[in-house]
Design brief:
This protein has one helix and eleven strands; from the N terminus they run E-E-E-H-E-E-E-E-E-E-E-E. It is mainly beta. The strands form two sheets. Strands 2, 4, 5, 6, 9, 10 and 11 form a seven-stranded mixed beta sheet that branches. A four-stranded antiparallel beta sheet has the order 1-3-8-7.
């Protein structure tokens, strides 16, 4: 069963923080790759943070030092801790899993097989 359910999105002021959660089914959680993407209105969906099956992690340059991806295997849950939020971080954030072909870390959206419904993050000045 494929299931990815995001939560934690909210409206915050610049400089604030949020923690996004992605609750996954066991099947989905055990994918070879999980990631967070985001998409702002009128823009392409872009990768934010990635973690592969052996725990290697990568981040997009625009979030390095501010965002942290992590997992809780006991809860089959993926997290994204977002600190020092900026207005340009405003977007719908999506959890994604499983890369049948190609690269996990830094992979493009089209590489991922499974997606959640998204959670909205809005950062105001």
């Amino acid at each position: 069963q494929v299931q990815l359910v995001e939560s934690g999105g909210d409206s915050v002021q610049a400089g604030g923080f949020l923690r996004l959660s992605c609750a996954a089914s066991a099947y989905t959680y055990n994918s070879n790759c999980m990631a967070w993407f985001r998409q702002a209105p009128g823009k392409e969906r872009e990768g934010v943070a990635y973690i592969d099956r052996v725990g290697r992690i990568s981040y997009a340059d625009f979030v390095k030092g501010r965002f942290t991806i992590s997992q809780d295997s006991a809860k089959n849950t993926l997290y994204l801790q977002m600190n020092s939020l900026k207005p340009e971080d405003t977007a719908m954030y999506y959890c994604a899993a499983r890369v049948p072909w190609g690269v996990c870390l830094g992979g493009v959206a089209s590489s991922f097989a499974y997606w959640g419904q998204g959670t909205q993050v809005t950062v105001s000045t």
